[in-house]
Amino acid sequence: MSGRFAPPIFDTLELSSLFFPGNPTHSLKKLYREELGLSDPVEDARESYEVYQRCQTENNSSKSR
């Protein structure tokens, strides 16, 4: 990928375990599966983004303490 834009890759499972160590689980909840009955990569991406946002919020609030 030389010379191309390569955005950073984040593992939300790992980030969640670092920022929220007290959580009993760090996997995606995939609540949409109850309604759809199957996996949806777009919904997984949305849920992953929400986890990422929570980690960013926690990171920013810990810096201001």
List keywords for this structure.
mainly alpha, flat, 3 helices, 0% strand, 65 residues
What is the percent of helical residues? 55-70%
Portion of residues in beta strands equals under 5%
Average residue-wise pLDDT: 89
Distance between the termini: 39 Å
Instruction: Count every beta strand, where a strand is a DSSP E run of 2 or more residues.
Output: 0
Oligomer: single chain
Question: Given the structure, what is the number of helices?
Answer: 3
The secondary-structure class comes to: mainly alpha
Counting structural domains, the number is 1
Radius of gyration: 15 Å
Unreliable stretches covering 5 or more consecutive residues: none
What characterizes the major β-sheet? none
- Describe the global form: flat
Give the H and E element order.
HHH
Tell me what you see in this structure.
With 65 residues, this protein is mainly α. The chain has one domain (12-63). Helices cover 55% and strands 0% of the residues. It contains three helices and no strands. Helix 1 (12-19) runs parallel beside helix 3 (41-63). It is flat. The model has no long low-confidence stretch (mean pLDDT 89).
What is the fold's blueprint, element by element?
Layout: H1 12-19, H2 32-36, H3 41-63
Helix pairs in contact: 1-3
Provide a quick synopsis of the model.
This protein has helices at 12-19, 32-36, 41-63. By secondary structure, it is mostly helical.
